[in-house]
Amino acid sequence: MNHLSSKFASSPALARVVPFGIFLLLTFLQGQFGEAGRYWGYFGKSLIGAALIWIAWPFVSEMRWKFSGAAVVVGIGVFAMWVGLDPFVLKQQELWIKLGLSKPPEHPPLPWNPFAQFGESSGLGWFFVCARILGSSLVVPPLEEVFYRSFMYRWIAKPDFQAVGLGEFFIKPFLLTALFFGFAHNEWLAGILCAAAYQGLVCWKKNLGEAMTAHAITNFLLGIYIVARGQWQFW
Q1: What share of the chain is helix, strand, coil (3-state, %, to 5)?
Q2: Rounded Cα gap, residues 190 and 199, in angstroms
Q3: CA-to-CA distance for 95 and 222, rounded, in angstroms?
Q4: How far apart are CA 128 and CA 118, in angstroms?
Q5: Is residue 78 part of a domain?
Q6: CA proximity to 20, closest of 136, 142, 134
């Protein structure tokens, strides 16, 4: 941890990229250890992500939660859009198959449903549901918002990214960041529109904290919706 702290202190770029990069690597690895391992992997990944936020916190001044009415409206709006678009838009994997750029998987992955794995209404199932909701609401937003909107957007605008204000609007970084964020999600179109909404909030309010809050609200509402309605495909 001391080594990471010193690296983050000496490099503003590393402080914004490394935590997200480690979290992304753990995301790819969490499905490599069997079905039960997916759930333990998410829990472990969330703990590591929280530790990375703690280490990076002193070196990323804009990574501070900020509550506002605008953040609430954007967060709820993105949630409604994410759920509302789902029946009408092909998932990313389905899109590539339809375009002939990919083949259907021989063994499609099972939905992320801890009750199917550990038993209906089981204590372990509820433990992993809570871990997923808390992780997606409190750990994912700081990591993703710092990477995409504090670093990537500004770096595309100018390699000396710290010379670019959070509130400055540039069309090329806006579009490219939205595309990168969107295609990092299976719900690619919802992801693009989601990124545009969060980036627009940053440009409007000139801070990152409200976008973090909006992102947290979206993910929290989505988690509650998934569990209440059994819509596990969103996870």
Answers
A1: 75, 0, 25
A2: 14
A3: 23
A4: 10
A5: yes
A6: 142
Domain interval for residue 137: 64-234
Whose CA is closest to 4, among 57, 55, 60, 50? 55
Domain-embedded: residue 40: no
Confirm whether 85 is domain-assigned: yes
Over 90: is that where the pLDDT of 107 sits? no
In a domain, 219, yes or no: yes
Q: What is the pLDDT of residues 47-68, one digit of tens each?
A: 999 999 999 999 999 999 999 9
Q: What is the pLDDT of residue 118?
A: 95
Q: Which of 130, 128, 149, 129 is nearest to 74 (CA)?
A: 149
pLDDT digits (tens, 9 = 90+) for 65-88: 999 999 999 999 999 999 999 999
d(CA 176, CA 194) in angstroms, rounded, equals: 13
Chain centre distance of CA 31: 17
Percent of the chain with pLDDT over 70: 100
The domain total for the chain is: 1
